[in-house]
Structures are given as structure tokens and as C-alpha cells.
Amino acid sequence: AALTVRFLTRRFIGEYGDMEFIYSHNLTVDGREILLHIWDVPNSQEQAEDGSSEEKRIQWADSFVLVYSICDRASFNILPLKIQFIKAAKEGQSQEKVPIVIVGNKRDLHHQREVSSEEGRLLALSLDCGFYEVSAAE
Predict the structure, then answer these.
(1) Which of 11, 84, 89, 133 yields a CA-CA distance of 20 to 30 A from 95?
(2) Coiled-coil stretches, from where to where (predicted)?
């Protein structure tokens, strides 16, 4: 949520609850106006739900940004399974590659790092995803 709010408002808010939100935002890319809809779901909520809710979100979306904390190995370790689930659901219907980006957040907390940048890059490469490491706070 912090990364989404930072992207949309350029402000950083450090604490969020485990709530799901859909944000709408107009963006100009290459001179074209684009309307983005962002369905922000905390991981703790996804783990508590059945697969049909996650399947609904996957069918709703055109692309995916999966965020993990570089300070939380568990948040990183669940990514391969999530990405396989997304690809099976989306690419099974068509032959088009689904755009997925993996984002390591909390780069500013490098002293608490549990996942190296290299691990993130290698995972993204092995799963044919984009990769970035960022800090919502900075």
C-alpha cells in the first residue's frame, strides 16, 4: 500500500492496515492519456482467502506488480508460486505473455536486508519478469 500511495500521491505514509483498495489514476504516457485502475491487496489478506477471490483479481487485471520486502524473506519466497498461478490463469487463455514486474521494497532499510538484489534479479530473470528495487519511503 505504501508503494501504491507513493506512486499516486508522491507522499509516503508508513503504516497501513490490511485493507484492500482499488485506486483510479490518470497518467500521460508518450503523449497518451491512460486511466489506471490499481487493485492493491495486502499479502496477509490473500493468504486468508480462498483461491476464487485471487482468481477473480487475476482475471480482472491486465498486468501485475508483485511487491516484497527486502527485509522479509517470507514475502520473497511466496513469489514463484504466485507468479506461476498468475501465468497459468492468464496465459492459459491466450498465447500472450502477461506483464509481471517484481519489486523489492524498503531499499532504504539495507541494514535489515534478508533478500539480496541479486536474488531478486535472478528470480525475475528465471520467471521472465521485470525487476526493480525501490524505497517507498525515499
Answers:
(1) 133
(2) none
